[in-house]
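Our platform keeps sequence and structure together, in a single record for each protein. Nothing more is needed to write down the fold, since each code stands for a local backbone conformation. An entry from our holdings is shown next, in its original layout:
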Amino acid sequence: MVLHRVLLVLAILLAAIRPASAEKLTVLLDWFINPDHAPLFVALEKGYFRDAGLEVELIAPADPNDPPKLVAARQADIAVSYQPQLHLQVAAGLPLARIGTMVATPLVTVVALADGPVKTMADLKGRKIGYSVAGSEEALLKAMLAKNGLKLTDVTLVNVNFALVQALLSEQVAAVIGAYRNFELNQLEIEKRPGRAFYPEEEGVPAFDELIFVARNDRLSDPNFRKFLDAVERGTLFLINHPEESWGLFIKNHKELDDELNRRAWRDTLPRFAHSPAALDAQRYERFARFLNAAGLIPSVPALSSYAVELK
């Protein structure tokens, strides 16, 4: 009888300490898996999502334009997206809000070949500039040209899709906008044709977050979102403290990424990750909204709370 009671108590205690089933969370990446997503994969491999009671699935999209739309359509929980695009998508009626930041500085640049004729932004007058994404990139370029005494009509824009490096190397265009300082600049160096970068934040464009996390704006009270961001923060801090070990975790299940370009990108992206992903710089978002409004890309400057929040 005594033994029976002891076993019963043990059974009750074991049931009490058994972890509850994890909450599933689907996260759509903005692009194919690459070092920009390092905090997510470090958090995954270190078990930080599991510690937070989450079962996170990271999915690379077939079309990089789709992730925010799929979140808006309730086909996923969170999307990795871009601050400039968020402003445009919210103005277009998508029910989205920024809940966190992953890369806290711009990555996009205007790039020309270092041994080419373009030494300054002013040298772009009368030349062709390749681009991949209409809308926000055009606004960035317009502001950068204006700071150097030029207008958009002084250059010819050419849609090169996402073949930015190829368009430069073939001299189809004199420069491209949309090249990332951590990828395309390294790719050009590897090709023995170094690039010359012009940085938007140094050429008249307000600073912005490059990669952010967005969710539906009617799900912001979901406690799993804050747990997710806290786990991403743990991943980021481990990554900063242990970059080589983190690289091993990143390529553990993605051997195809273990090459010179991704190693260089890993090194160059490291200082750009947000140390506190949940923190919101309200003035940065309001300033960029005013910039897009002045450029005529959004009809008005909306209330910050309608498109960007800091979760509690």
